[in-house]
Amino acid sequence: QVQLVESGGGSVQAGGSLRLSCAASGITFSSVSVGWFRQAPGKEREGVAVVRRNGYTNYAVFVQGRFTISKDNAKNTLILLMNSLKPEDTGMYYCAADGTVTSHSKAVADFAYRGQGTQVTVSS
Question: Which tops the pLDDT comparison, 113 or 105?
Fold first, then answer.
């Protein structure tokens, strides 16, 4: 059974930083695509960052230069380092994983597995 457990969310002021972690079990990180997506109240889910099965890393335009995604295959852990946070970054952040061949092009929010989410709140 695949489990993804996020941690590290919290409340910060604009300009601050947070480090989100995702601990995975029942899945082998080295053979899947993994990433983060977020959802704010009343808004659609939006992909934040992803590391594809082939190693390709991609960021949403609105986080480029501020967020960094990394994964530790040995520890089955995914990290999202968020700097220069803005109030519009507020939302629930979810870790997601997908081992299918279509994960190369699938949106992170549509990945097969996701965690329960961790709340990020940025105040101005």
Answer: 113
Answer whether residue 102 shows pLDDT above 90: no
CA dist 77 and 46 (Å) reads 21
Q: In the chain, which ranges are E strands?
A: 3-7, 10-13, 18-25, 33-39, 46-51, 57-59, 67-72, 77-82, 91-98, 113-114, 118-123
> How many CB atoms are located within 10 Å of the residue 49 CB?
23
pLDDT tens string 61-96:
999 999 999 999 999 999 999 999 999 999 999 999
CA separation for the pair 44, 41 (Å, rounded): 8
Sign for the pseudo-dihedral over CA of 57, 92, 38, 16:
negative
Q: Which two tokens stand for residue 25?
A: 């079990």
User: Amino acid letter at 45?
Assistant: R
